Amino acid sequence: MEIFFFFMSLLFFVFLFVHRWHSLNSSSKHESSKFKEINSSDLNTYKKANLRVINNPYQPPSGITVKNHRNYSFIPPSDSSKDKVSDEVDSLIKNSKRRAEFEEQMRKASYSPPFFVNEGSINKWSLDLLQKLEWRRFEGVVASYFRIMGYQTKSCNLGADGGIDIYLYRNNELEALVQCKAWSKTLVGVKETREFFGVLTLHRAKLGFLITSGRFSLDAINVARQIRNQGKCRLDLVTGDRFLGFISQLSANQQNKLLEFATDGDYSTPTCPHCGIKMVRRSSKSNGNEFWGCRNYPRCHQILH
Is CATH 3.40.1160.10 what the domain over 127-262 is classified as, yes or no? Predict the structure, then answer.
């Protein structure tokens, strides 16, 4: 009798175990099929969304309105061109070598647009391209040009530069100082010219290049001529057109490499001089004036007009 009860108890526990295992297995299969259905539904919803941009819920500070800049915006396609634009965007995402760097840059900026779309390939230098370069990229292009010309260059870090953007060396000896002005709409005037001359005098430099993507005022040109005539130092004013002339004297391979560096990624949105990240276009509700503001606001109050 005791043996009979023992076997009956054993069978009962085995039954409970098998029943429990079967229940768990059925529940797991049901959740798996449900998950696949959800993923399939989300994918179909995404494909039918006309590729519209879904930004992170960024809330600007009080009194500030954020406006999408053309480099960070994507125009939703019409129904007739939806498939074509979808293929182009998929190709950009798969083939862009700079995708990882772009995502890291946007992560640091606490902003992550879903797509990065180039404005089109640029195969030659022009004044329009030079004037589209933001100030940091313009300085990089100038420094790269002087390296091609055989100089050793040292660029200043972010923050106050003391009126010097690039130091030029030959054989570890200082030969010239460079100040860059990425001003396409404003003339570089007497004030900037005299200030740079003061910097040259302070560092006892005999040669200085004041380079702009635009032009100089007539008074600034006269001041530079007077400085040269006095024999104190050589202050060379380089306009955007003249700098393009310098580039045109390089070999075709050197020009292409410099162009590739200049147009790599987002080359037109200004960089914050303090934080080193891309800025965002904003407008004040009080007066409607637009300006470039740092994405790290209110930690950083840096603005550019």
Answer: no
